[in-house]
Design brief:
By secondary structure, this protein is α/β, with parallel strands linked by helices. It contains 6 helices and 5 strands; from the N terminus they run βαβαβαβαβαα. Helices cover about 40% and strands about 15% of the residues. Helix 3 crosses helix 4.
């Protein structure tokens, strides 16, 4: 079985993420959407909310598993889960410049390969940070996020967590 992981904080998951995950599902038998937590960041949504949004949004795709990544290195997570590939979406050359050293290190640490998928042109401008900022300032983000995410953004998300970062 060919297994891959699409890691990310998904705060919140948006249509650009969905497009990459759906394409990965066409390439691999199973795709694990590993929702990560970077304790240096403040999130708009809790880990459980981010996982719920991903599950709701990806429910119609076959071979998708949503789970927390937990603590530790992505390379070790892949080794323990029997995952042979990391799938990353690229929006620009700066994404590539950021991701390439990590891809090389992950391969050297555990043998896991990284597959880069270029984003569709109409998603190149999307980022979770930008979506949160626009939403917080009253802008319409309905074209950029799934309905379950939009509902939560309009409801204010987790009041105890910062709407910035991520």
């Amino acid at each position: 079985m060919r297994r891959a992981v699409c890691p990310g904080s998904f705060d919140p998951i948006h249509n650009g993420h969905l497009e990459v995950i759906a394409r990965a599902a066409g390439l691999f038998d199973e795709v694990v959407v590993a929702v990560s937590t970077n304790y240096a960041k403040k999130y708009r949504f809790s880990l459980e909310e981010r996982m719920d949004m991903a599950r709701e949004t990806l429910a119609s795709l076959r071979g998708i598993i949503v789970e927390p990544m937990g603590e530790g290195l992505l390379a070790e997570y892949c080794r323990h889960r029997g995952i042979s590939a990391i799938v990353k979406g690229l929006r620009s050359s700066s994404d590539f410049d950021y991701e390439l050293p990590m891809a090389t290190m992950n391969r050297q640490l555990s043998g896991v390969e990284t597959v880069f998928l270029p984003a569709e042109a109409h998603y190149l401008h999307l980022s979770s940070t930008l979506i949160k900022e626009i939403s917080l300032l009253g802008g319409n983000v309905s074209d950029f996020v799934p309905k379950s995410v939009l509902r939560r953004l309009l409801a204010g998300g987790s009041a105890a967590e910062s709407p910035h970062n991520g």
